[in-house]
Specification:
- It is built from 12 helices and 9 strands.
- The chain is an alpha/beta fold.
- It has an 8-stranded parallel beta barrel with strand order 1-2-3-4-5-6-7-9, surrounded by 9 helices.
- Strand 6, helix 7 and strand 7 form a beta-alpha-beta unit.
- The longest helix is centred in the C-terminal third of the chain and has 19 residues.
- The chain is globular.
Length: 336
């Protein structure tokens, strides 16, 4: 029996606004809390017309104010874009406002293209290769201050904020294992090294003050509807978003498009087959089977479910179906 959580990018849909996206994000979080989801995470992306969660800590404050139990967190903060002190203060603020509910997931990608990454730079010497040192520095700010310590995260110091390492390669798996931190893999859009990363993380894990045993959360796309055909149609919005991003023309989230795959060039169909290989698309029966097979194959400790669906009511319905399946889970013998 494993928990399900929600990853929301606060999608800006065609014809909608960022304000609409934030209202919908809170509505989803409130429903998700009632349905029994464990966490509600938002992710840092920049210069993307279809994603409203760039100022992730600010967006999470909005979610925290409108909920009472569900954990809120970043999945993740792209640490090379920020000083560790600023992130410690931001998440120390969130933890002070919503005690015992805040997670901090950290990634080393910029969450954007090179032009926006340059515009985001902390300074001219910003370097993603500093990521391990920046993670350790950030975690140190959450410890009780030493006598005479000149730089302190206030709020932040002395707060027990769980830190996660996010990744889509072996680098994050190795770092999470070395630091004894929970690991979240971005299998919902970059599944190619998933199984190898899980093995590296679990086999190399060193217990820490935060975590005594390895803990793996995997990203997973769910497009659930009353029928397989309806779910397949809903999924074409995310398919369009992937293709538009890959062709350098990102857009707001587009409405579903009938026969989209049939009209797509074979090379793009092949790309979508790969990037969406960690997905369940279909009726409740289909989604339940595909989720169960995925968990049995990976031994995931938790699923981070995302549903980039154009219509908000259809998106709620998809998460509601997944939540019902979460309640129907049978004990699974997890892979080692």
């Amino acid at each position: 029996m494993i928990p399900f959580s929600i990853l929301d990018l606060a999608p800006i849909v065609e014809g909608g606004t960022a304000a609409d996206a934030f209202r919908n994000a809170l509505d989803l979080a409130q429903h998700g809390e009632g349905w029994g989801y464990h966490r509600f995470w938002m992710a840092e992306h920049h210069s993307m017309p279809g994603v409203a969660s760039a100022a992730t800590a600010v967006a999470l404050a909005h979610i925290g104010a409108g909920t009472s139990r569900i954990r809120i967190g970043a999945g993740g903060i792209m640490l090379p874009n920020h000083s560790p002190l600023v992130i410690a203060e931001q998440f120390g603020t969130l933890e002070s406002l919503y005690p015992g509910r805040v997670d901090l997931g950290l990634g080393r990608a910029p969450g954007t293209d090179q032009a926006a990454a340059y515009a985001l730079r902390r300074n001219l010497e910003s370097d993603a290769n500093r990521f391990p040192r920046d993670v350790v520095e950030l975690m140190d700010y959450f410890k009780t201050a030493e006598p005479g310590q000149r730089v302190r995260a206030i709020p932040g110091e002395g707060l027990r904020i769980p830190v996660w390492i996010l990744g889509s390669s072996l680098f994050g798996a190795q770092l999470a294992a070395m630091l004894g931190l929970p690991y979240a893999f971005a299998s919902h859009f970059a599944p190619q090294q998933m199984m190898e990363a899980i093995h590296v993380y679990r086999s190399s894990f060193k217990p820490s003050e935060q975590l005594s045993r390895p803990y793996v959360m995997l990203g997973f796309n769910v497009f659930a509807a009353d029928t397989d055909d309806e779910a397949q149609l809903l999924a074409t919005s995310l398919m369009q978003a992937f293709v538009n991003l890959r062709t350098g023309t990102p857009t707001p989230l587009q409405p579903p498009k009938a026969n989209y795959l049939e009209e797509l060039a074979p090379a793009y169909r092949s790309t979508l087959d790969h990037v969406l290989s960690c997905s369940a698309i279909g009726s409740p029966v289909t989604v339940k089977r595909e989720i169960r097979e995925f968990v049995e194959r990976t031994g995931a400790d938790e699923l981070m479910i995302t549903s980039q669906i154009y219509d908000h009511q259809a998106r709620l319905r998809s998460f509601e179906i997944a939540a019902r399946l979460m309640g129907e889970q049978e004990p699974i013998s997890l892979a080692s």
